[in-house]
Amino acid sequence: MTRVQLTLKSVRARPVVVPLKRPVVSKVGLFRDWPMILIDLYTSEGVVGHSYLEPYLKQSMRYIIAAIEDLADAAKGQPVAPFDGYRRGIGSLHLVGREGVSLIAVSGLDMAAWDALAKAADMPLAVFLGGTVGPVPAYNSNGLWLTPVDELASEAAALVAEGGFTGLKLRLGREQVADDLAAIAAVREAAGATIKLMCDFNQGLALGDALVRCHALDDQGLYWFEEPTTYDNIPGHAQLARELKTPVQLGENFYGPRLLYQAVLAGASDYVMPDLMRIGGVTGWLRAAAITSAAGIPMSTHLYPEIAAHLMRVTDTAHWLEWQDWAYPILSEPFRLANGHLTVPDRPGQGIAWDEKAVAKFTQ
Fold first, then answer.
1. Looking at 95, 122, 149, which one is the last position of a domain?
2. CA 277 vs CA 170, 295, 339: distances in Å
3. 118 in the same domain as 20
4. Number of domains in the chain
């Protein structure tokens, strides 16, 4: 095999806002459309790496893009080496903090760098990392928000049909426990009694309320309770994990593998689900996966299903892929979805490319 050494030439980061098929209605806000930052990493050798970020808030994109551009300018002319780039990027930001915008920018560049390297090797990212392509078990996270309970049944049936799913994500934390119980019953009636319900509170409850609500729902056979209270309340989540028989899920808001490690040491959750934008991209994921492997903790994904699917193929304790189609409007060829699995295609790199006509339409 011929080794290809890539050199960073330039980076382009573009803000787009795409429409959502179903509005996001949660404790963290109402979103009718979805901001994304598309990153193109150009190399002197002609290989282009792609990645994207989903920063939630439209106004945040200008700050993140500026940070990406600054980091890229500092790395011009240097080898495309993600581990080096991650360490260099994080190190350069010590004085302003290793979390928030800093790590988000590093993550976006990291994912694009790995894509470029895998393309240069003419391998899918999963294969480049030592694994294989193929299907990854997924649950549908495209709906079942804090919308009226009488709308949930029809939506649940539609979500199952989108890809033969056996698992759905349901958001909980309504005003009364009876409303949450009614939501669970409505979804089960429409989707089938055997459907797995991954339930997310979106950090919407104070710890005391989370203890009361989760104990009240603990006999419902739910698959997990996700972020019942604020993500950084590690002692609170540890108390929930000790007291509840329903597994506790945590991790989408962990900034970097070290915070995940601290949560594992504290016994803060039974499962973890890092987010690529916050954990540190592919490099951060690989380091986090080593921690979960050593601890024997199942590891799921949060957002970024196309990139995350590759990483699930090489993760020792791989659990569930969270699937949503929010990036589909700007992708030229979405991955195949069938029988509750997203299939990693046999295409070089991460296998994503932009539909430039759509990008032009949605560019801010």
1. 122
2. 23, 23, 28
3. yes
4. 2
CA atoms within 13 A on the CB side of 206: 2
User: Which of 102, 84, 101 is closest to 93 using CA atoms?
Assistant: 102
Query: Rounded to 5 degrees, what angle do the CA atoms 248, 252, 258 make?
Result: 95
Same-domain status, 144 and 233: yes
Distances (CA, A) of 249 to 98, 236, 246, 263, 319: 24, 13, 10, 11, 12
Q: Which domain holds residue 196?
A: 127-360
Q: What are phi and psi of 323, to 5 degrees?
A: -110, 130
Let me know whether 272 and 160 are in one domain. Answer: yes
Q: Are 227 and 201 contacting, i.e. CB atoms less than 8 angstroms apart?
A: yes
- Which of 220, 229, 180, 169 is closest to 202 using CA atoms? 229
User: Of 59, 90, 122, which marks where a domain is finished?
Assistant: 122
* Within a domain: 1: no
Rounded distance between C-alpha atoms, residue 151 and residue 190, angstroms: 11
Cα distances (Å, whole numbers) of residue 297 to 37, 144, 328: 31, 27, 31
> Tens of pLDDT along the chain (364 residues)?
567 799 999 999 999 999 999 999 998 889 999 999 999 999 999 999 999 999 999 999 999 999 999 999 999 999 999 999 999 998 888 888 889 999 999 999 999 999 999 999 999 999 999 999 999 999 999 999 999 999 999 999 999 999 999 999 999 999 999 999 999 999 999 999 999 999 999 999 999 999 999 999 999 999 999 999 999 999 999 999 999 999 999 999 999 999 999 999 999 999 999 999 999 999 999 999 999 999 999 999 999 999 999 999 999 999 999 999 999 999 999 999 999 999 999 999 999 999 999 999 999 8
Looking at the domain assignment, is residue 94 inside a domain? yes
Q: Is the pTM of this model over 0.85?
A: yes
Domain of 13, CATH number, reads: 3.30.390.10
Instruction: Please check whether residue 25 lies inside any domain of the structure.
Output: yes
